[in-house]
Each structure stands twice: as structure tokens, then as C-alpha cells.
Amino acid sequence: MCGRFTLTRHDLREVAALLGAFVSDEDAAAHRPRYNVAPSARAWLLVDEGAGRRIEAGRWGFPPPWGPRQADPVGLINVRAETAAEKPSFREAWRRRRCAVIADGFFEWRGGKGHKEPLWLHRPGGELLLFAGLWRESVDEEGVAARRFAILTTAANELVAPIHARMPAILGPEALSHWLSVGPGEGLDAALGPAPAGLLVATPVSTRVNDARFDDPLCVASAPGLFD
Predict the structure, then answer these.
(1) Radius of gyration for the alpha carbons in the chain, expressed in angstroms and rounded
(2) Is the confidence at residue 158, as pLDDT, over 70?
(3) What is the pTM of this model?
(4) Active-site residue set
């Protein structure tokens, strides 16, 4: 499962350069660091629809098959990588609308009910993480078309498994190129397995992140001693 993530980089143009992607001046100006991205929030997607990589905005929450007027306006935030290609809700996106969700960390919670303590899972050097995603265009209540996305999850690796059974499917460089390529998407299973345990570290952080209303650097402030 992935229910919160981060992209703490200040400069979206720098992110675009690292990914070999185009980003518009408008989107680069609109970017701000994100320390607690929650479902229904706006985030950045890496797409390649045949004319080179681009960074585009998307809203987290794939439109549910029962339509947007039901009780769950957020939609579907995660989909299992093992079954996404066959699910009616995601089958077409798997074939033609794959993306990478640009992040640099994600959160999981450890502990019993009422005592949930957050861990921020990220690369030791702060490098980017690219989550496999699927997107679909949806029209909001104001009639504006927007990309909406879900993050693919896979079985947890050795680091994450004691905390949660699932984790985002993290794309390495070769897997990223394959995942973004235009085409039906055969042979992608190997690209969507658990990331090596050594790729990530788990940092105990402030319980401030438990509240989606907070989105500031204090959300990833280290809280040593939580699990001592």
C-alpha cells in the first residue's frame, strides 16, 4: 500500500533535467516541495506518449468504475501490479496510459491502533524514486479535464515487510524506459517486483505527518528513539 508520499525537491526544472524530460514554464513555476502528499492531491507524473518524456500534473485517485458521483470522490489510489493488466478498471490504462509518479519517499506506519508511528522510506542520498503508475483523463465538476492516477504496488521487500505487506513498485532506469514505452505492455512483470532492500532506508519521523492537513518540512523531521 502507498497512502502518502513526498517530493521534497525545490526545483522542478532540476527534476526534469535528471529525468531527461520536458516541463513547461507554467508547471515549473507552480511547483513547491511536498512533504505529505495525500490522496486527491496534485502530484507530478512522468509520461512518454511517443514524443519524448514530459512532466505533467495529475491528481491522485483513479476514477472509480462506478463514476464520480458516488460516496468516494477520491477514487482508487493503489492497484496491485500483479493483477492490474486484467482488471476492467485498469486494463486500458495498462495498455496505453502508463506513467511514473515522481517522488523521493513514502510513508508507512508501525504500531497498534491508536499508537501508529510513521516511518519515512527514502533513498539514503535523497535521490528520486519513480513509482509505476497508471493514469486516465477525467472531467471534474467544473468541466475541466485532468489526469488522475493510481500507484501500482508490489510485495514488500525485506525492509518494508515487517511494517506492511505491500509497497510501491519502484522503477529502475531500464524498467522505467520499458514501462513508459508506447505499446501494449507485454513482459512488464519483471519490472514491477519488489525493490532491493538496500535501495531504501527507514527514518522515524514526526507524527505530524499523520494529519494530511500538514505538508511542511516538519513532516519528515527525524524523530530518533521512536523504536529504540
Answers:
(1) 17
(2) yes
(3) 0.92
(4) 2, 108
